[in-house]
Amino acid sequence: QVQLVESGGGLVQPGGSLRLSCAVSGSIFSIYVMGWYRQAPGKQRELVAETTTGGSTNYADSAKGRFTISRDNAKNTVDLHMNSLKPEDTAVYYCNAKERRRFGRINDNWGQGTQVTVSS
């Protein structure tokens, strides 16, 4: 069982910065990718950024150049550094951990989410 706890959300003005943190615990050895997703009211949940155990990263086009995902293996945390925030970044941000299963299947683990509001 994997447990994910997000923190760092809040209210920030356009152009500001925010750092989200995700603490992971439990049976973490089966995780092969960690990521951040977001979901605004009335919209689908979408990938923001992810990083694999090998260190590769993948960003949504809307996040490239502004957001950075990083891992601290010693602390078992994954951070999302967000810069130049825009009102359209407003959403609930969820930490995600994917586990490999047999026959190519993937098990998703989700945190409770943290609210990010970008507004003046």
What can you see in these coordinates?
This protein is mainly beta. It is built from no helices and eleven strands. The chain has strands at residues 2-7, 10-12, 18-26, 31-39, 46-52, 57-59, 67-72, 77-82, 91-100, 106-110, 114-118. It is globular.
Task: Reconstruct the topology from this structure.
Elements: E1 2-7, E2 10-12, E3 18-26, E4 31-39, E5 46-52, E6 57-59, E7 67-72, E8 77-82, E9 91-100, E10 106-110, E11 114-118
Parallel strand pairs: 2-11
Antiparallel strand pairs: 1-3, 3-8, 4-5, 4-9, 5-6, 7-8, 9-10, 9-11
Task: Give me the number of helical elements.
Answer: 0
Radius of gyration computed on alpha carbons? 14 Å
Are there runs of 5+ residues with pLDDT below 50, and where? none
The biggest beta sheet is recorded as: 7 strands, mixed
Number of strands: 11
- Could you give the order of the helices and strands? EEEEEEEEEEE
Helix content: under 10%
Residue share in β-strands: over 45%
Overall average pLDDT: 95
Rough shape?
A: globular
Through-space gap between termini:
40 Å
Structural class: mainly beta
In short:
With 120 residues, the protein is mainly β. The chain has no helices and eleven strands.
List keywords for this structure.
120 residues; mainly beta; seven-stranded mixed beta sheet; 0% helix; 57% strand
